[in-house]
Amino acid sequence: MAAISWGELKAGIHDAFSSERVDIDQVKRLLSAYRSSKEDWGGYANFDPHRCIHSHANSHCFMKILAGSLKETQFAWPSECEGQLQPMQQQACHSYYTDEVTYINDSVGLHRVENSSHTDTAVSLHLYCPPITLCKSFEERTGHCHNCKVTFYSRDGELCKC
């Protein structure tokens, strides 16, 4: 797919999410075709320092790195052994860089996304379809789970309360 503009990306995403069935590969192609420019997305950026292991409430989760790099650590769903929770089992660890795209859903597993740098900033675009209002977060040492209400999202660059 040829390079597309920010406007074409937004229109393509709206189109891709307008039907009942989401074509995961098509959304990934759209995100990959857009070349990141801070002039495009700077007004949409909202910074969140949280970096917990979490689920995606049976939604598709697409992530594109707009600037810098982020580390994604994937985990298996926790299991109980004789009524006792066990430490989370790491499945994979990947680093993603500007303009790279990744995807996860609950059947793939859980993940944590974090900026490993203490000096360099990172910006990512996250798309959830359907939108998430509640997810689960997990304690890495015990696998204990908490229900978490998603406290904000943005629409056209404006923070919205859920």
Would you kindly provide a written description of the structure presented here, covering whatever features stand out?
The protein contains three helices and 13 strands. The chain is 15% helix and 39% strand. The strands form five sheets. It has a three-stranded antiparallel beta sheet, with no helix packed on it. A three-stranded antiparallel beta sheet has the order 7-2-9, with helices on one face. A three-stranded antiparallel beta sheet has the order 6-3-8, with no helix packed on it. The chain has 162 residues and is of the alpha+beta class. The termini are far apart.
Any descriptors?
single chain; 162 residues; alpha+beta; three-stranded antiparallel β-sheet; 13 strands; 39% strand
Secondary structure topology:
Layout: H1 6-16, H2 24-33, H3 38-41, E1 53-54, E2 60-67, E3 69-75, E4 80-81, E5 84-85, E6 90-97, E7 101-104, E8 110-114, E9 123-129, E10 134-138, E11 145-149, E12 152-155, E13 158-161
Antiparallel strand pairs: 1-10, 2-7, 2-9, 3-6, 3-8, 4-5, 10-11, 12-13
Helix pairs in contact: 1-2
Q: Could you say which structural class the secondary elements and strand pairing correspond to?
A: alpha+beta
Return the average pLDDT rounded to an integer.
89
Helix content: 10-25%
How large is the radius of gyration? 16 Å
Number of helices: 3
Portion in strands: 35-45%
**Euclidean distance between termini CA atoms:** 35 Å
Which residues sit in consecutive blocks of at least 5 with pLDDT less than 50?
A: none
Largest sheet: 3 strands, antiparallel
**Strands ordered across the widest β-sheet:** 1-10-11
Number of strands: 13
Shape: globular
| Order of helix and strand elements from N to C terminus | HHHEEEEEEEEEEEEE
